[in-house]
Amino acid sequence: MRLPDSVTGSFLVVLGAAAAYGGYILPPVPGQPVGPNVFPLVIGCGLALCGLAIVFGIGRSFEEEEELVPFEDGQTAAPPPQSKLYGLRALLPPALLLFYVFAADRLGFIITAATMVYVTSTALGARWKLALPLAMLSPFAIHLIFGKLLRVPLPVGLLPTPW
Amino acid sequence: MLKTLIDAFALISTWEVIISMFAASVYGLVIGSLPGLSATMATALLVPVTFYLSPIAAIATIVAASSMAIFSGDIPGALLRIPGTPASAAYADEAYAMTRKGQAELALGAGVWFSAVGGIAGVLSLMILAPPLAEIALSFSTFEYFWLALLGLMCATLVARSSPVKAIAGMFIGLLVACIGIENPGGIPRFTFGLTDLFGGIEPIPALVGVFAAAQVMRAMLTPEPPPLPRRKFGSIMAGQWKLTKLYRWQMTRGNIVGIIIGVLPGAGADMAAWVSYAMSKRFSKEPEKFGTGHVEGLVEAGASNNASIASGWVPSLLFGIPGDTIAAIAIGVLYMKGLNPGPTLFTEKASSMYAIYLMFIIANILMIPLGIAMIRVATYILLAPRSAIMPIIMLCCAVGSFAIGNNMFGVVTVAAFGVIGYVMETNGYPVAAMVLGIVMGTMVEQAFVTSLIKSDGSILPFFERPVAAILAAMAIGALLWPVMVWVWRKVKQPQAAAATTR
Description:
- The complex is a heterodimer.
- Chain A has 2 domains: about 5-60; about 85-150, no CATH class.
- Chain A is about 60% helix and about 0% strand.
- Chain A contains 6 helices and no strands.
- Chain A has helices at about 5-25, 40-55, 85-90, 90-105, 110-125, 130-150.
- The longest helix of chain A is centred in the C-terminal third of the chain and has 22 residues, at about 130-150.
- By secondary structure, chain B is an all-alpha fold.
- Chains A and B meet through α1, α2, α4, α5 and α6 of A and α9, α10, α19, α20 and α21 of B.
């Protein structure tokens, strides 16, 4: 998902302009020169300026020493397969979180959580021998900590909790 | 003084505090040692748990978990050349080279020992710096607070190891996120798009969990699994550390001081402290040629530095509510939640709580030595746990934890959204720490800015009239112009260099 600077920069220009306009149309507080509209206006303008600077490549020379934490060791790690669909795997975690939002109330915590664990684990390369017991046990462990000890009202759903 | 100290002891000597501190230490050590799980993430995932603890126990868990995680990031760094936390990345190569030379014990022992020393130095700085600064801060008006907050935001962009323009853009995005909701000077719904869930604004904690935890799981989906750890037997871990302390006492002190300064600077945290100190150690060393071949000197200085910054990061947090680093940003959220609102009056009204925080830091750093040694010995087994077993649990904790903060599913949506935002920003070179600071400080910046503007009747002049405000303003504007000046200087220098080579 590495995008060219011109794309991210243009997006920031649009976002900044939208924020500035959104701030501008907010109703002012009667009898006061400044209200809730000033701050978004300032930020929006700033953001748009930054976006412009990024489009024109200002400050890119500072990026050369950017080093992310080296995960690959080079010697042992195989190069990840490069296909269009492979990059979409990154969207799996947020998708699963949204699945939790929509399904937890209906299916209940245990079932939803087990599904999430199983899918994440398999996506990261686990065999069913690891993923299945993990999906069976970890929701109960989390339920014990959050539901029982910390009294978070986790949805019950289809499975009643008899303990 | 003595009475407050006794009160502080009474506050921390309850079973709840002791147990939660111990549990949080173990948790911090484990999370920190697992590659890809950072100290910030450990702290962020801990917040929902702190909801259900007493104020002191809640802070105890954060203090213990963050200090331990910063140290234990050294373990996989030394054994696998994969830093457990970004703060250990600066010297992971060096530590690994020592392991290959058969000095794993010395490298890891230096990690434990100098982390603990650095942590205690950080606490001392917190104890010494905070009260006098609180005296000064009592006379601050909104003008000073505005410039201080701006200075904090600018520091965060200066130290980001990326393009400063992108860092400033990240900061603006964070401030924009903070605009959402009805908590603004007019009390009207702003950028809520008619969604009731957005009326209360974006909660910083789910946003942080998204940026630091969910985004990490997303990244794990695309990176290959780190190699398993070769099994090994360790000799004595603390042997030779005292000798190192005496040999490298200047390096250690310098590391402590640099760590403290970087910790106090808003936005710059342990990872920055480690990078700067390691570079400094190499620069001032009598034997710089040994660096990179398994030389312990840089480890001493950087290890002393990153843990010192953890404690001193609390100075601006406690005094002004301006986080010294991302971990302190989370801590501020917890402080507000627990009725210990940051501000200079905290030191007079809740003095015993402050002393309790100092004591907990000291205890956590002493506890680090035995627990750290134990952790090094069992690390081989913990690092056997495959990523495909850890990441799903992290996902569950993200979902349940963010739900627990408000018993509200919108928290989980926030985590998902900020996971995506954080992931996209990080891959495109936008530092997420700057955005996080913007989110945490947005409301405060706006309040100080708008109140000042109302007081000054729309005029800009009073922003510079008070002496302290003028100094802070000069510093903030200087910080803003600094990258511009460097850029211009490079532009001027480049043609000269080009001309010199062609000649």
